[in-house]
Every structure is written in structure tokens, then in C-alpha cells.
Hints:
By secondary structure, the chain is an alpha+beta fold. The chain has ten helices and 13 strands. The site of fe (ii) ion has 3 residues, from loops.
Amino acid sequence: MTALMDIQQKTMDEYPTRKDSTPALLYRTCPVVWESGDGGPHDGPYTADELASYEAKGYAQTEALLTPDEVESYSAELRRLSQDQELKKDERVIVERSSDEVRSVFEVHKISKLFADLVRDPRVVGRARQILGGDVYVHQSRVNYKPGFGGGDFWWHSDFETWHAEDGMPAPRAASISIALTDNYAHNGALMIMPGSHKTFVSCVGETPEDHHRSSLKSQEIGVPDKHSLAVLADMHGIDVLTGPAGGATVFDSNCMHGSGGNITPFPRSNIFIVFNSVENTCTEPFAAPKPRPEFLGARDFTPVK
Length: 306
Ligand SMILES: O=C(O)CCC(=O)C(=O)O
Ligand SMILES: [Fe+2]
């Protein structure tokens, strides 16, 4: 990229972050639910009421997206991956800070045929297409294990803030689906979302260090919203705790303020996460990092999921 393009991209940046020494709360400038390219009605699994609720809250929960048999076979696949000693040497496998247990495995849709098929499943990709208004590709996929007796927390963050700063995602026209493979209770580290927070972009302070992902995937310190902004958002919106039985799914906007507590119970809380981005929002140069992260964290292949 030339210096001029660099300047143009920076001046056009509607979601500036990690560039200033003071945090800021900015309005989201783009839609949450997108019209499909042909301007026609939204085709897909969600009803109009569900879409309206997603627009307002930034997330939608679905009970029993997977059958009990499917939950069992995906769980078996999760166990197989976590016990694969060869795979443990792979950079796509992240272990917990405080133990040798697997925390996350990235790019599972490339590692496992079962997860590759799940990404293409109309129950999954159909939801993303409907919200994002047409063709989507996988920006990232992962499983988060959150084992019992010590699964670590995920501090409050907006995924889009990281994808924008470090992967060059222009706008929050992306959505994640989190599919529960274990029961999610309030006490085993269920996902928490501030409903409505997706309409505010929290501009964070701090400069992204070189190879930031090596530490941030265990515990994030840069790209973390300041406590005052978090308190303002929590006062405005409150906090929803997304509990529910295994097999359920939550789709949430890429700019939702979310996080989860650690898991000191004996009950693991394992989820599959797939991030879909619109093909009209493909990644450019990072907006606030020296170079893009590796492809297993932020895809540069924008082939739509069919
Ligand atoms: O698994 C969780 O509770 C949250 C994970 C998350 O937000 C992330 O990995 O970006
Ligand atoms: Fe996240």
C-alpha cells in the first residue's frame, strides 16, 4: 500500500481506535440488519420479529439448533481435537494461561470435515446471510473449551474493534454464531452481552504491538475498552446472561460488548464459534496494526460459503 492510500484509509476511518490517548464512544454509522442485494425481502430462518429484536439488542438466541445426536457427535470431535498431540504443536491451538488445557482451537472448519459441513449448513449460514444481506464468507472459526475447574475468562470487548484494528475489517457488517455443545449456566462462564451496545463503538487506547495475537488470545490487554466506557454502556443497557441447554445457538453482532467469567465449576462450557463477514465488507490493510494477523485468525480468502 502506498503512503497516500495509507493516509486515505486513515482519514476515511469511521471507527478509529488505538490511535488516541483518550477513549471515546462513537455512533455506529452502518445498519445492523442489511437489505439483501436485490432489495427483496429477507429470506431465511428468522421471522420479521426476530430480525427486529436482533436489530435492537444485537443478538438472537435459538433453542435446539442442533439435535441431541448432533451435539454428541460434535462433542466427540471436540474431544478428539483436544487430545490430538500433533495438533497441540500447531499455532492454531491455544492453551490456558494457568494450565496445559486447550482453551481454543482456531480454523476448525479447515481442520475438521464435520465442522466444514456445519459452516455450510443452512441453519447456520442461512442466519448469517439473512442478517448480513447476502453472500458471506468465514472470517474466523474456533472452538472455545472453557474447561471445568479453571477455564479462563474473556474480558469485555467488541470483536469488531480487534478485526478492524488488526485485520482491516472496514465496518461491523459481520456476525458470529456461537453454538453450545454443553449446557451454559450463569455459573460456568456463560456469554454476557450488553444488549444494544452494538450501536456504540468504543474507541480504545494503546498501540497494537507487533505480533499482538500471541498474547491476546490467552488474555487481551490492548484493544480493551476502558472501565468508564464499560460502566456507561452497562448503565445504559444492562447485561444479559445467555444461558441455555446444549444444542442452542446465539448469533450476535460483531460490535456487541461482550465477555464471560471464568469457570470454577466442574461443568465445562464448550462452544463452536463461526464468524461470517459480508463479501461486501472484505478486509483491507489493518486500521491500527503493523501487519494483518495470520489467516487462521482473519481470513484473506473471501470465497462465499455456498
Ligand atoms: O467464549 C466466550 O465466552 C467468549 C469468547 C469471545 O468473545 C471471543 O473469543 O472473542
Ligand atoms: Fe469475542
